[in-house]
Design a protein that fits this description.
alpha/beta, seven-stranded mixed sheet, globular, four-stranded mixed sheet, 2 domains
Length: about 325
Amino acid sequence: MENNPSPIIIFFHQGFSPYLAFSLHQARLSQPNARLILLGDESNRIGGLDYEHRVIPPTSSRRTEFLATYRHFHPGHLEDERRCIERWLILAEFLEEVSLPEFLFLDSDMLLFQDLRDYLPTWRGWDAAGAPLFYSFCFFSRPSLVIEFADWILRQYRDPKVMRLWEIRFQRHREGIRQDAGIIQDMELCRLFVEAASLRILDVSQVNQNGWLVDTGKWGGAFLQGRASQDRLAQRKPGRNVEAREWGAMLRFLALHVQGFDKSHISGFTGWSRAVWRAFFRPNYRKNLKYLLRYLWNGARCRFWLSSWEKIDQEK
């Protein structure tokens, strides 16, 4: 591990969400020597945390074209789904400005718990390593792959035949006829691109030979999604290893995806720091005080849940 370079980790987030500070805090705790970058805006600049804050430019030729040609083939909120695709164009433009040999791209609600340098040698043998594909957690050993993906997305929206095909499939989806590409979102575009380019992607959401995996959201969001008694996790100290047992097998999480609309239990996994605490005291204090109380309460409940489970070692 000492001979492996420290990883470069990129987060993307627009606007301020309280959980973002916990994700950055946990990333630095687990990767003390990593280069942490947030592609964000002035509203989510968080003082006191050790990371690079890169403000996303307001516009670009790629994004202008995308906004002009985008068609919404998804039952979800237009701006949310469009932003999920647009972030790949933003990332591509950032990579054209800076020279990075390799990097990990994370959703802003992904928590890291293991030193990534142990895994990089294996991941470099693939076009990318994701959980799965490019979803929420993806290591790119070739940054130009992201630029190729961004340009491929624009070509799809330029093509009238593709638009007509997606329109027909989405209409069938709305009528209850389920098929591939019925809904167009960033995850579906990833799948189509990987197939078109014949890429080799390592699925790190599958348990490796040492029992480690990356959570796709099943475990990280369980506490506030009605599955607390079913998808049980154990963690002896905040910020440290998170474990579970499923079908008699020991699972250890390299990363945990705190998926879901409500992420206010996140501090149960990470603990608090002075910088994280201060992040709540921003403009619109009444709203942020409400957030603070919610995060304190649900974080404490989650911490009790994590520590009160019978020790996994005793089950062996």
